[in-house]
Write a structure and sequence with these properties.
The protein has about 100 residues and is mostly helical. It has one domain (about 1-105): YheA/YmcA-like (YheA-like fold). About 90% of the residues lie in helices and about 0% in strands. It is extended and about 55 Å long. It starts with a helix and ends with a helix.
Length: about 100
């Protein structure tokens, strides 16, 4: 068990040393320090979560909710910092998925 934990720690260190992780963390901090961007991202995530929960429970999504989600989505994609952040987040998640898939084999 100790060997497995040691290897997991080594993997964590390797991940933190990747350009993908470093860029994601840098942009994450930038978003946190930008009040407008962080508030916009928070609102987007809240609306996306609410819609997802309604869908999972079998409720229909109201037209006004769809419109609000489109509006906030457009605002997010028009924010250059958030666009870079989302792309970096997606690359980081792709790395984690690849690692997960490699561990499953």
């Amino acid at each position: 068990m100790e060997d497995i934990l040691k290897k997991a720690d080594e993997l964590g260190i390797l991940i933190k040393g990747t350009d993908v992780y470093i860029e994601f963390e840098r942009l994450n901090k930038e978003v946190e320090n930008d009040k407008e961007a962080s508030l916009l991202l928070k609102k987007y995530n809240e609306i996306a979560d609410a819609i997802q929960q309604k869908q999972e429970r079998g409720f229909s999504i109201e037209k006004f909710e769809q419109e609000r989600f489109k509006e906030i989505g457009a605002a997010v994609t028009s924010n250059a910092l958030l666009l870079k952040y989302i792309k970096a987040r997606d690359r980081y998640l792709e790395l984690l998925i690849n690692i997960h898939n490699a561990l499953k084999q």
